[in-house]
Specification:
alpha/beta, TIM Barrel
């Protein structure tokens, strides 16, 4: 094999390695990322991105309360700024709240200065509502949009006092063709200590339609609580076991 071809294959392999570990939510290569706790026993964590949503977050809160379940909400700063009272209701109900940036960009494509601004503006919006982010080991929860991250992303998160928080079960509920049945199909794959990704809002609209996600949650809770499963926040899941 020629030197040029060897170099090309090496570069391709490095690019593939970098993309994989920047994209896959369970990768730990670039630094500790909370995604599941296999020692948590019969517990599953429900997480919701892109709210708060005045149309669907309240309905979700009602369902969670009915089943004595807790969840973790990763809020977009611009929607937190728009819905401070709703954000307070989420926190008052005992759910965890994490940073999901102010405008929902792909963090891996932003400069370190831009990342700091996104994180800081989101924190300012949440704290202006009288709410503080939930923590694990003294670091606030933060979910990179799309789960995408790279070494610089992780450095900024650490610098700003955050811990990367992703998931182990993707429900694909943001897709246009997603239905309650398709979301449930993925959610039902959850095993002990898994973290499920769903959405109560949308990055482009503060009132995005999350009917399918909310009703899939209701059905999942009906099924799993009857089987003795518990639904803690991310900090409680990580502390279990």
């Amino acid at each position: 094999m020629s030197t040029a071809r060897t170099a090309a294959l090496a570069a391709l392999g490095a690019a593939g390695f970098g993309y994989y570990n920047a994209q896959v939510p369970t990768s730990q290569v670039y630094g500790r990322t909370l995604c599941r706790n296999p020692d948590a026993g019969k517990q599953i964590c429900l997480t919701y991105d892109d709210g708060p949503n005045p149309h669907w977050t309240p309905k979700l809160l009602e369902i969670l309360e009915r089943f004595d379940a807790k969840a973790t909400f990763f809020s977009i700063g611009k929607w937190a700024h728009r819905e401070p009272e709703l954000l307070r209701e989420v926190k008052a109900a005992g759910h965890a709240i994490g940073n999901h940036t102010y405008t929902h960009p792909t963090m891996a494509l932003k400069t370190m200065g831009q990342l700091r601004e996104e994180l800081d503006r989101c924190r300012e919006a949440v704290e202006a509502a009288g709410v503080e982010f939930s923590e694990v080991d003294g670091r606030a929860l933060m979910r990179p949009p799309f789960g995408r991250r790279r070494p610089a992303t992780m450095r900024v998160l650490k610098e700003r006092g955050y811990i990367s928080t992703t998931w182990s079960i993707t429900c694909w509920d943001w897709r246009d063709q997603a239905s309650q049945e398709s979301i449930l199909k993925h959610a039902r794959k959850a095993k002990e200590g898994d973290v499920i990704l769903m959405h109560d809002g949308g990055q482009f609209s503060p009132t995005a339609d999350r009917n399918a996600s909310v009703h899939a949650t209701e059905t999942l809770l009906e099924e799993r609580t009857a089987e003795g499963w518990r639904f803690p926040t991310v900090p409680d899941l990580i502390a279990a076991g």
